[in-house]
Amino acid sequence: MSASTKRTKVKTAEPEIEVMKASEAPVEAPEEAKVTPKKKILFVASEAAPFIATGGLAEVIGSLSKALARDEKYDVRVVIPLYQDIKKEYRKDFKFIGNTYVSLSWRNQYCGVFEYTQDNVTYYFLDNEYYFKRPGCYGYYDDGERFAFFCRGVMEVMNFIGFYPDIMHCHDWQAALAALYLKTIYCFRPEYQFIRAVFTIHNIEYQGKYSLDILEDLFGISYHFQNLVEYDRCINLMKGAIECCECFSTVSPTYAQEIKDPYYSHGLDPIIRRNEFKLRGILNGIDPDYYNPATDVALFENYSEEDLRGKAVCKEELQRMLNLPVKPDTPVVAMITRLVTHKGLDLVKEVIEQALRQDMQFVILGTGDSSYENYFSDLARRYPGKVVSVISFNSDLSRKIYSGADIFLMPSKSEPCGLSQMIASRYGTVAIVRETGGLKDSITPYGAGGNGFTFRDYNAYDMLYVINEAIGVYRNKEAWKELIIKAMRTDFTWASSAREYEEMYRNLLK
Ligand code: GLC
Fold first, then answer.
1. pLDDT at 20 over 60
2. Rounded to the nearest whole angstrom, what is the distance from the C-alpha of residue 352 to the centroid of ligand 1?
3. Which numbered atom of ligand 1 lies nearest the CA of 437?
4. DSSP three-state, residue 292
């Protein structure tokens, strides 16, 4: 009851009741004074840029949360593990806000909580040195246990900090258990009962598969719920999250269609099709401030679409740095990629030597399977002055390549979204992509007035044809400049995609 409301006790035959005089009834607050509580969104993920990143997932967590938090309507928070490799420059400013304990089957583990705020987004880092004081993020024999601890920790930390989100948005298999714990354990507690779970698939290849034997003993989920997580006689955490969440999404409209098909689904297509009614495909964006050729300090020289002179300097300096002949009129075709099969490297292997017969230079940066690493190192040895392969993960060099190259090649066999084609375009490096997943949704063919070059079938000669087509256009200076500007002007920001996420959240909160 508001302090200003006067109440009068009235004597009647009935027991005493309180009557509020009309004149004294609370007055409706004026429009501007009404405060609608912010909608609380919690991202649960295994990595987030700029703190720790092994790939596109981290960038999306960092940039989408920032884009959503720009809207006053949302209180956006992100929770990730406190890995040993979290960048020191940030870590020193994390604030320790206390600790709780997380029980996981028979285990009872310490869970420290650190907090940090940036761009209106509050980040939490869950600390347990036994699980996370190791180099890197993944690839350990006990990853299942590590992320089970993390997800159970997320659920406990909600209670510890008193933050029960309206939307708990889990990303990829490492966060899938949070959705499972919500639906099998926590939703029976009053504070958790209104939390809606959203699950986003960034790559369906990695599903989190384990033996059914450890469902109770390791994941702490009763066999009563076995049907939720079981698939192909295994625990499949991604399948479990899809079944449990109110809504799930993937990172491009085309990939949302593709994963219904066995060619792309890595076995999960029956589950995707069964849950299709709650599936959405929302194209990722990039942070235009973070990737901005006009301000990026990693570049040899800055430039913009109004004044492209700096791009020529970037190319010249890149050639010099990589010991390639400095030739302004020789097209530099680049790839920056993990060296794994689904990136389409077999197509490149098949025809690159034919492409190299013409005047071009080829630069590849990345790490991955040793067979590809060896192949590209050998190619560089056989084509000195034409091919450079840098087998490493180097963010500074990647920006020098994005800005200094002319053509960016991304012939993926499958690609949920892909961010590199967007970054390359933003830096005026024209993309050649295969029409799959987010590549199809972001790059449109030059012949139809688009911003790059595309080919449809997973066929090396189709790719070679398009490489030659792109080099043909490159030789026409005016046409090429126009194409560069078109690529740079394409809107790859989060503006429209963040609205699609908001709409998805709104529908769930109705
Ligand atoms: C994964 C996908 C990639 C996507 C990224 C961010 O790394 O392989 O295509 O862009 O997640 O969603």
1. no
2. 25
3. 9
4. coil
Which residue owns the Cα nearest ligand 1 atom 5? Answer: 56
Q: What is the pLDDT at residue 32?
A: 52
Q: Rounded to a whole number, what is the largest CA-CA distance in the chain? A: 105
352 lines ligand 1 (CB under 6 A): no
pLDDT in tens, 125-141: 999 999 999 999 999 99
3-state secondary structure 194-206: CCEEEEEECCCCC
Burial class, 386, CB count within 10 angstroms (exposed 0-12 / middle 13-18 / buried 19+): middle
Ligand 1, closest atom to CA 255?
A: 9
Tell me whether residue 299 is in a domain: no
Q: Is residue 32 part of a domain?
A: no
Tell whether 253 and 375 lie within a shared domain.
no
Q: What is the 3-state secondary structure (H, E, C) of 205-248?
A: CCCCEEEHHHCCCCCCCCHHHHHHHEECCEEEHHHHHHHHCCEE
State if residue 419 touches ligand 1 by the CB under 6 angstroms criterion. yes
Q: Is the CB of 338 under 6 A from ligand 1?
A: no
Q: Is the confidence at residue 26, as pLDDT, over 70?
A: no
The four Cα atoms 458, 460, 464, 469 give a dihedral, to 10 degrees, of: -20
If asked whether residues 237 and 378 sit together in one domain, one would say no
**Same-domain pairing of 264 and 387:** no
> 346: which 2 tokens?
């077999």
In DSSP notation, 398-413 reads HHHHHHH-SEEEE--S
One domain, residues 165 and 85: yes
Range of the domain at 149: 39-285+498-509
49-344-349 Cα angle (round to 5): 125
Asked if 264 and 397 touch (Cβ cutoff 8 Å), the reply is no
CA distances from 248 to 27, 59, 78, 238, 343 (A): 43, 19, 18, 11, 25
Are 268 and 313 within one domain? no
Task: Supply the pTM of this predicted model.
Answer: 0.91
| Closest ligand 1 atom to 438 CA | 9
Distance in angstroms (rounded) separating the CA atoms of residues 16 and 498: 55
Instruction: Measure 506 CA to ligand 1 centroid, in angstroms.
Output: 25
